[in-house]
Amino acid sequence: MDLDSWRKTLPAAGTMLSMLCAVTLASTVWAQSEHHHGMEHPPSAVEAKPQSAETQDAPHEHAHKAEADSENEGHAAAQHDQHAEHGMVVEESKNFTTIGYDDKRGSRPIQTKLGPARAGNPAVGKGLAQSDAKGRCLNCHVLDKDAVLAGDVGPNLSTYGTWGRSDAYTFQRVWDARAHNPNTVMPPFGTNELLSVQEVTDIVAYLLTLKQAVVEPERSAPRKARDRIHVAGVDFSTADEYIDAGSAAFSEAGKNGRSCASCHSPQIKDSVDLRAAASRYPRFDQKLKRVVGLEEQVNNCRGGRMASDTLPIGSRTMNLLTSYVKYIGRGSAIKVDVGAASAEAFERGRGLFQRKAGQLNFSCADCHDNAGGKWARAQRLQRLDQTAGEWPKHYIAMHDLGLINLRQRIMHCQIVNRTYPLPLHSQEYTDLEYYLTQRASSSSVLAPTMTRLRGE
């Protein structure tokens, strides 16, 4: 049996990109998904140019060399050169802490502040509160009857004006809610320079006018993490239109005439079965003494066995190759290494997941653990316990990001949440990926997949 015949014996869903029109039609249901947690798409931005990691010349270190050549080249390639804004960050985000291991800044100290004696303008405050670029209140709160698709992460504020809260209390709550609750998920709008004193004053004036109850919007029941979607008999959960291109990349010869298929093919004696590899990465590499992802292993093979250039993490070819490997292992249970060395990476990843960063002072856990299952505007905040096996994924968030990997999704989420991103090859992103994959150990590999018809 040749490799192509072997591939055809594997499970296939046959998702067709030509049916993306269905997603477009559904976009009215989650049109604010790019405004995740109230993050506007940056109106003014600068290109992210993270620092390159150190590289070594040892053959086993090929995985680290290509990423340092051009972090943004691979990232742009994954967007099919259509979404350059995905590699852009808001300039102000550089002034706030990142999740980098060497970034010791931490969140800004809590500020207590008295508002001005003069009254604010309720009409101006309403516009600010409902703006995705300023107050972002609708991402978490129901306000008044004019609100559309308000979220439910925070309390319904439609009767706030009857609660007996003072101007001073309300001003502090908006300026820096940590003064009242150090564990709040509400951004410190004043402290972190998202709103000025006058803007907070106007929002306070508006909130105190809210005295008529508004019922929260009716939401459909959450779809289970592994529910499959079928349209006209086609499985719309998977993105198998990438498999042929992935197979071609898998069989493409390197500079010495060898390809991935030269070692990983059923017709080769003692061939390494890739069905297990799809479910075992990221894993601890004994030679490198760190956790590496499937992408690093692909580059190790390309450099050490194919005498070929390594591929930037996030490049289209790399995502096609890893999608193909995941496809070969589709259905296999995720079982990553849990040894002592890996346990350290798991704890580092857990720490990063819980670490607040960026201008909005969010952590991954704020959205996906503490508010998991709730709505930020029209986007349901998904718990991430069973999602690692879905990546790479053809991801659509307002605009079509194409086929991206899990680290690119982490980077994208940080960008729209005003956190300065790290290079895709950074150890921080790899440790986060390992942590999320370990959390998904009760599930199976499904990749490559497609963004579902409503927010995720």
List keywords for this structure.
16 helices; Cytochrome Bc1 Complex, Chain D, domain 2; elongated; mainly alpha; 3-stranded mixed beta sheet; 456 residues; two-stranded antiparallel ribbon
Would you write up a description of this structure?
- There is one protein chain.
- The protein is elongated.
- The protein has about 450 residues and is mainly alpha-helical.
- A three-stranded mixed sheet has the order 10-9-11. The chain has a two-stranded antiparallel ribbon with strand order 1-2.
- It contains 16 helices and eleven strands.
- About 30% of the residues lie in helices and about 5% in strands.
- The protein folds into two domains: about 5-105 and about 225-450, Orthogonal Bundle (Cytochrome Bc1 Complex, Chain D, domain 2), CATH 1.10.760; about 120-205, Cytochrome c-like domain (Cytochrome Bc1 Complex, Chain D, domain 2, Orthogonal Bundle), CATH 1.10.760.10.
- The longest helix has 15 residues, at about 340-355.
Could you outline the blueprint of secondary structure elements for this entry?
Elements: H1 3-8, H2 21-26, E1 45-47, H3 62-69, H4 71-78, E2 88-90, H5 122-129, H6 167-175, H7 197-207, E3 230-231, E4 234-235, H8 243-251, H9 260-263, H10 274-280, E5 283-285, E6 290-292, H11 294-305, H12 316-328, H13 340-354, H14 364-370, E7 375-376, E8 379-380, E9 393-397, E10 399-404, H15 406-416, H16 427-439, E11 449-450
Parallel strand pairs: 9-11
Antiparallel strand pairs: 1-2, 3-4, 5-6, 7-8, 9-10
